[in-house]
Amino acid sequence: MPAWLNLSAEEWTAVCLSLRISFWAMACSLPFGIILALALARGRFWGKSLLDGLVHLPLILPPVVTGYFLLILFGRQGPIGGFLAENFGIVLAFRWTGAALACAIMGFPLMVRAIRLSIEAVDFRIEEAAGTLGASPVWVFFTITLPLILPGILSGMILSFARAMGEFGATITFVSNIPGETQTLPTAIYTFTQVPGGDFQALRLTLISLIVSLGALLLSNVMARQVSKRIGQT
To answer: Distance between CA 13 and CA 119 in Å, rounded?
Structure first.
């Protein structure tokens, strides 16, 4: 094994925790991403522009501001965090689950945008034809719309995952930088840059983060192309 891959236990923990948090951030936000993308692409309702702005707000706000809002809302003394802690024993602040929430929110706009563009590219006449043949809206969605927008869903998932892998500001503000609990790759890199002689470890984790994120993006493109080919052949 190359010397630069001989990670310490602390570094391996940060890598595995980043992968775990990024996966759950992506998976838990996916249903909401599909629903909101459908609403923004097909919906006609008052406040649509406002909803669109709120969805994309994390792309505009500094990540630290987003993390601070999360701390106010989901902290132990916050209205949502206090309710969850008192009634369900769920604590998000300074826990890995809180890091997953922060990463999900930061990657959510990218997911929604990718899925929305895919939905808008679908020929609505195909769905209308299925409806005239007696298919219910739910059946049309799962048998026609969903397969057609699958490349966009895959792209949105991978973009959300890659964004979560690189999340720093909102995470460190909301859940701090606790080794073994909330210390992800970006926060571990930041820690090593503050320690004398930690430059090599910081560079090593930076390269690993770059490889994982770039690999995720390449995988997204390959999977989207394969799915598009299969859809075109059916």
So the answer is: 38
